[in-house]
Amino acid sequence: QPDVPVIAIDGPSASGKGTVAQRVAERLGFHYLDSGALYRLVALAALRAGVAWDDEAGLERLAQELKVRFDAGRVWLGDEEVTDAIRSEEVSRGASSVAQWPAVREALLDRQRAFRQPPGLVADGRDMGSVVFPDARVKIFLTASPEVRAQRRYKQLMEKGMSANIQTLLQDIRARDARDSQRSAAPLQKCADASLLDTSDLTIDQAVEAVLKQYRASSGPGVAGG
Ligand code: CDP
Ligand code: CDP
């Protein structure tokens, strides 16, 4: 669907990509792809099936056979709702392990591209602009300082009534940044044609407006109004 516009939002953990991408999608009436959820689902399926993090072929098979459904912000794996289960720390670490395997990434490509449906798509992850949708209309690299990101994750967990330690969160964020940026398959990096959006000092609304502004400034159909 090369005519369908894509807004690609990539960036590190807890930078706010998911929140910003969802709101931009709502504002434009576009579809939304949370690509990280797919890696999390493979990790959860691996934990359930007892497939090891270094078993590339086993993980690839799980990715190919993944039975997922997204609906109104909720996620199902087969018949089971796993919306909260895929957000656990164990699954978060597992996701960044399974994501290093090229065969797993390859197995998830078509599934991600299938989200590109009229009138448009907002996709967030690590390689939306670089690999999955290289022809995206708008590419944003969304970041914030590690300290701000740890603080945001902390607040998020507190609001859910979960316990957390800010120093541990900061360490986790730094470790995951390192693993995501240093891997050889689709590492997290700002591509040359992406614009940098540092949200350390921005509210969610300000970040959403900045993305919408870029989209309106890009040429093509569907840019009037909004
Ligand atoms: O919300 P957060 O940024 O912490 O994580 P996520 O976007 O749900 O992604 C979970 C993990 O999947 C990340 O640590 C990445 O290693 C991996 N991932 C990826 O490799 N490529 C993507 N397009 C999205 C996620
Ligand atoms: O998807 P990602 O892991 O990049 O981050 P997220 O889950 O969308 O955002 C992490 C937390 O930061 C959420 O609780 C957001 O509400 C919050 N946030 C914020 O406080 N200010 C921003 N400018 C963006 C996000």
TrEMBL record:
Location(s), subcellular? Cytoplasm
Q: Which domain of life is it from?
A: Bacteria
Q: Which UniProt keywords apply?
A: Amino-acid biosynthesis, Aromatic amino acid biosynthesis, ATP-binding, Cytoplasm, Kinase, Nucleotide-binding, Transferase
Tell me the ranges covered by the Cytidylate kinase domain, including all copies.
7-216
Query: What molecular function terms (GO) are annotated for this protein?
Result: 3-phosphoshikimate 1-carboxyvinyltransferase activity; kinase activity
Q: Which residues bind ATP?
A: G11, P12, S13, A14, S15, G16, K17, G18, T19
Q: Which family does it belong to?
A: Belongs to the cytidylate kinase family. Type 1 subfamily. Belongs to the EPSP synthase family.
Function text: Catalyzes the transfer of the enolpyruvyl moiety of phosphoenolpyruvate (PEP) to the 5-hydroxyl of shikimate-3-phosphate (S3P) to produce enolpyruvyl shikimate-3-phosphate and inorganic phosphate.
Complexes and interactors:
Monomer.
- Report what the protein is called: Multifunctional fusion protein
Q: What is the lineage of its organism?
A: Bacteria, Pseudomonadati, Pseudomonadota, Betaproteobacteria, Burkholderiales
